[in-house]
Amino acid sequence: MNYAQYETSDWYEPVAAAVAALQAHKDLSITVVHADWCGDCTYTLPLLKKIVAALPAVKIVDVVVDRQKNDPQGIAKRLGVTNIPTLVVFKGAQEVGRIVESPKATIEEDIVAMLAK
Predict the structure, then answer these.
(1) Contact 32, 45 (CB under 8 A)
(2) The Thioredoxin domain covers which part of the protein (predicted)?
(3) What fold characterizes domain 16-116?
């Protein structure tokens, strides 16, 4: 993933218990729909970058959209994304949940909650 255009996440410390819980999951992937012009993306994506650094087994699919939420591969449209950033979490081929614009708690805690359902 190329998050170089986004702000730093130096201040953020992921929730260790949530990261440990995610490390136990196999076949986990996150499709990240974002844009460099999106204000919420400049806050959220550096945090995600720091979280996934501790989760090398998690596959990240990076989808950059234009202002109409279109991307060259049509992934955002197929997923029905209308707001960004949107993190679509998959366990295998099954979507287990989404974080749209901002998490309820933290990104990592929200993903753990999705997987617990």
Answers:
(1) yes
(2) 1-117
(3) Glutaredoxin (3.40.30)
